[in-house]
Write a structure and sequence with these properties.
- The complex is a heterodimer.
- By secondary structure, chain A is mainly beta.
- Chain A contains five helices and 19 strands.
- Chain A folds into two domains: about 5-260, no CATH class; about 360-425, no CATH class.
- A ten-stranded mixed beta sheet of chain A has the order 2-1-5-7-9-11-13-15-17-19, covered by helices on one side. In chain A, strands 3-4-6-8-10-12-14-16-18 form a nine-stranded mixed beta sheet, with helices on one face.
- In chain A, helix 1 packs across helix 2 (about 125-130).
- Chain A is globular.
- The termini of chain A are far apart.
- In chain A, about 50% of the residues are buried.
- Chain B has one domain.
- Chain B has twelve helices and 24 strands.
- In chain B, a hairpin with a 2-residue loop joins strand 3 and strand 4.
- Chain B is globular and about 65 Å long.
- Classes of the chains: A mainly beta, B alpha/beta.
- At the A-B interface, strand 18 and strand 19 of A face strand 23 and strand 24 of B.
- Strand 18 of chain A pairs antiparallel with strand 23 of chain B.
Chain lengths: ~425, ~475
């Protein structure tokens, strides 16, 4: 029998079991977890502020989609591009001439695929493992310095489709690379669900930067889990920019396994309509002499809701850790809501850790000041909101990515502002 | 310089036993161990309670049986066997004391050791003490003076007899019996506590205070405090605790309810120094307390706590800011040493317009202890222009202890302003060096720095308490040089 028969799991009953060469024991385990676990409710601490029950009411299917052009999704036109539609690789849309020192393997082609994503009690990770469609493994060789980033575009297309997709990135020692991850949905897509996992190994002294842009649509679901392992002397940066998506949940787990590491996590989310965006992050400092910086900023309008849950763990042996975490939110409407939970769990004494969280609104005086200088209310608000969010966007070093983000902001929020306005 | 090394000092201090760890030998009237409806009826009958209170207890007990013990707190301890506790123990005195001279001399001695000589206090401080020893209030002073102003300040059981309507109308309104596991347990089996009522427009001229003390071995202490400040009233209430040394764990599950009506103000200060267990983590009190206040229009509730004792603390003094323009404050210092565990914080529920709350929490962890701040700031939809400021700092003294912060911030109103800030660090070596250079020993330097660190909170305490609290801080941290 190839299909899931359990009645309570009807929403995934039409999905095929994975054909990717994951270890059999892992697949069996994922299946048994799937069979016994229910969708989490708000009684579950990790899902306290995010309701996923509506996923259970949709009868998801897989589909290869039908996309003829990726022009509107291309973030960096010069970068080598790998395109996946609903989780399936699209050879015709991809431009996979990768530069020297980096190679990619489609997971469906690989003889053996590893997965270290925790699936115990994690229904979405178990689902991703048991029904994995395809994905990509990127290997960046030792000492490679990539001039141009590689972009991986994942596009949802169609009604009630579900994509279980996985990316593995392995950055060798002393490598330096940038990866762009773009998640989009076509106009034809409705109630589509991207269930994504990403595993990243950052080698010794490697520098890896990931720009992740989430721009699906107001009916879409996006649940992603990132599992990152950092070796000593490495620097890892992840910029998560969420601009569209009905329900978005990002689980970001960083294990800092080597000394002298730097981890930068930046996030910006701008919500309107009925969007719900939930950013969970865990930074686990297991060894000494490391630094982590976390900055998440959000603008929440209409009936939308934002959730932030950041956790910093400092283990007993991890002395001399500097860990900073900040979450700031601006509420623009009376029906908008924010739930913020910054956490520190510290077991070492010689550390400097702090976190801050603020929630507020635009400064009336600042608006008055701008209006007194002839700006319309709309323009004044836009300027203030963009100045607020630019803090995070400025962390993105790739100007093409930044320009693309501003074009999305114009498309969705009508912003007449470009990155140059701030310089 | 002597050859007395830091290690020797640490050893000396480790062996230093708990200062207030003594047992006074007073015969108690005990209920058999265990918990069932019969025991509850026994307690109720013993206290000659009206029918409605028995119903309240039984209702709470039935609901408690259906509840499960909460496990979300960041603490680990041996589960309490609720059938192995004696739920009622009253000092064996049949008649009430008419005058201070009638009081059992041994009990007086106990109080003396605690440093609360009633005679002294009557004469000097102007503090009315309602001394609670094992659940039954034995001495109350300044009562007549308070009565003149219409202020009621008495033990809970007395209030039940004398002012049943007042008690019935207010009890359980802030903390319903089903609120949580321990509150339900307390509602079912509470033996005594304090009751305080300040009439309309009256400003209580003195600090009201209660001392609790667990005395009978193997008895859980289930106190219940109810403070009602009527419109425009003001009261400052002090609560302080020390407990004798015990080997088995003792349970303390108290309920404190504060009601501040329109324009009223309640200031509630606590110094908690229950027995924390020895240096290996044996014994000590389990302190599972539910404290909550509700504010009317323009009113204010302020919680100040200094927590140095107990093996396990689970305590979240909260404010429901229901009335417009009401203010909630929470100032806390929590110190843990050896194997102590504290999970403490506050909840500020903003319902009314222009409500304000301030949270200042200072945690200090030493030894192998764990200290967590857990707080909730909730801005409801109608809470226009609500304002919150939270600051939670943690100080780590050794490399084996832990400091954790779990703030929950929920905002549903766009005009609200919420700020939360937390830091964790250790005492700067340069600070200690600076002190040592000027001839201040390391131990004293730490005490100095810690006192400075906690100043913001200690400043909120009434004078008498501030002195005691500073002493407690240095005692609790002795020998914890990291």
């Amino acid at each position: 029998m190839n299909k899931v028969a359990d009645k309570s799991k009807a929403f995934i009953s039409k999905l095929d079991k994975t054909s990717v060469a994951l270890p059999n024991a892992l697949k069996d385990k994922a299946n048994s977890i799937l069979a016994s676990l229910e969708l989490p409710t708000t009684r579950n601490e990790a899902w306290k502020y995010t309701r996923v029950a509506k996923l259970g009411k949709i009868n998801f299917a897989t589909s290869k989609g039908n996309i003829s052009s990726i022009d509107s999704y291309t973030i960096d036109p010069q970068a080598p591009t790998l395109v996946f539609v609903n989780g399936y690789f699209s050879k015709s849309l991809s431009n996979n001439h990768l530069p020297e020192g980096i190679n990619f393997t489609l997971l469906s082609d690989a003889n053996e695929v590893k997965s270290e994503i925790p699936i115990e009690d994690e229904i979405f990770n178990a689902l991703n493992t048991a029904h994995l469609i395809d994905g990509v493994a990127l290997n960046i060789a030792k000492n490679t310095i990539l001039e141009k980033p590689v972009q991986i575009l994942h596009i949802l297309d169609g009604q009630s489709v579900m994509s279980n997709f996985k990316t593995r990135i392995d950055a060798g020692a002393f490598a330096k690379a940038g990866i762009i991850q773009g998640y989009f949905a076509t106009e034809a897509s409705d109630k589509a669900f991207a269930n994504v996992t990403t595993e990243i190994e950052v080698g010794e002294s490697a520098h890896l930067t990931i720009d992740k842009i989430q721009f699906e649509n107001e009916t879409s679901f996006h649940i992603s889990t990132e599992q990152i392992n950092q070796s000593k002397d490495s620097t890892f940066t992840l910029n998560t920019i969420t601009l569209n998506g009905g329900l978005v949940r990002n689980n970001l787990n960083i294990n800092v396994n080597g000394e002298n590491c730097t981890s930068n996590l930046n996030g910006a989310y701008i919500l309107k309509g009925k969007q719900h965006v939930d950013n969970h992050s865990v930074v686990d400092h297991r060894v000494a002499n490391c630094q982590s910086n976390e900055l998440y900023k959000g603008v929440i309008d209409d009936n939308s809701t934002a959730v932030f849950n950041g956790k910093v763990f400092v283990r007993q042996d991890a002395q001399q850790i500097n860990a900073f975490q900040s979450n700031r939110n601006v509420l623009l409407s009376d029906n908008a809501a924010v739930n913020s939970k910054p956490e520190l769990e510290i077991y070492a004494d010689d550390v400097k850790c702090s976190h801050g969280s603020t929630t507020g609104q635009l400064d009336e005086d600042a608006i008055f000041y701008l209006r007194a200088r002839g700006l319309s209310l709309k323009a004044a608000r836009q300027l203030l909101v963009s100045a607020f969010i630019t803090d995070v966007l400025d962390k993105i070093e790739n100007l093409k990515v930044k320009t693309f983000i501003f074009s999305l902001l114009k498309e969705r929020f009508g912003w007449e502002i470009t990155p140059e306005d701030f310089h | 310089m002597s050859n007395y090394t830091e290690n020797e000092l640490a050893k000396d201090l480790e062996n230093q036993e708990y200062e207030f760890g003594f047992t006074s030998d007073i015969q108690a009237d005990k209920a058999p161990k265990g918990l069932n409806e019969g025991i509850i009826r026994f307690i109720s009958a013993k206290k000659n309670e009206p029918e409605w209170l028995l119903e309240f207890r039984l209702d709470a007990f039935r609901k408690w049986q259906e509840m499960t013990e909460p496990s979300w707190a960041h603490v680990h301890y041996k589960k309490v066997d609720f059938q192995d506790i004696c739920y009622y123990a009253a000092p064996k005195q049949t008649k009430k004391y008419e005058s201070w001279d009638d009081v059992d001399p041994e009990m007086k001695e106990t109080m003396k050791k605690l440093g609360i000589s009633l005679e002294e206090q009557k004469r000097l401080t102007g503090v009315a003490v309602d001394f609670v020893m094992d659940s039954v209030s034995v001495a109350t002073s300044f009562k007549d003076k308070l009565a003149e102003l219409g202020i009621i300040f008495c033990s809970f059981s007395e209030a039940v007899q004398e002012y049943p309507e007042l008690v019935r109308a207010n009890m359980g309104t802030v903390i319903p019996v089903t609120d949580n596991y321990y509150a339900a347990l307390n509602s079912a089996v509470f033996t005594d506590g304090s009751f305080c009522y300040i009439p309309k427009g009256v400003k209580c001229p003195m600090e009201l205070s209660t001392y609790f003390r667990i005395n009978e071995g193997g008895t859980g202490q289930f106190e219940r405090t109810l403070v009602v400040a009527d419109e425009g009233a003001y009261v400052s209430y002090l609560e302080g605790c020390t407990a004798p040394q015990r080997d088995e764990n003792q349970l303390h599950a108290a309920v404190v309810e504060l009601i501040a009506k329109d324009n009223a103000e309640i200031k509630y200060s606590t110094v908690q120094n229950w027995y924390p267990g020895d240096k290996d983590g044996n014994g000590g009190i389990f302190n599972f307390v539910t404290k909550r206040g509700i504010c009317g229009t323009n009113s204010k509730i302020s919680w100040t706590q200094v927590e140095t004792g107990s093996a396990v603390t689970w305590k979240y003094p909260s404010c429901i800011l229901k009335g417009d323009n009401s203010i909630g404050e929470f100032y806390s210092v929590a110190v843990t040493n050896n194997y102590q565990q504290a999970d403490t914080g506050t909840k500020m529920i903003h319902l009314g317009k222009n409500t304000k709350s301030t949270i200042i929490s200072k945690g200090i962890s030493a030894g192998k202890s764990h200290n967590s701040y857990r707080g909730l700031v909730q801005i409801h939809k109608g809470a226009k222009n609500a304002r919150n400021f939270s600051q939670c700092d943690s100080l780590l003294m050794t490399d084996e202890c832990g400091a954790h912060t779990f703030p929950y911030i929920e905002c549903k109103n766009s005009s609200a302003k919420i700020e939360h800030e937390a830091t964790t660090s250790k005492i700067g070596e340069d600070q200690i060096f600076y002190c040592k250079q000027r001839g201040i020993g390391e131990e004293k330097a730490i005490s100095l720095i810690v006192n400075g660190y906690c100043k913001e909170v200690l400043n909120q305490l009434p004078m008498e308490f501030a002195v005691e609290a500073q002493k407690l801080l240095s005692i609790s941290l002795e020998g914890s040089v990291g």
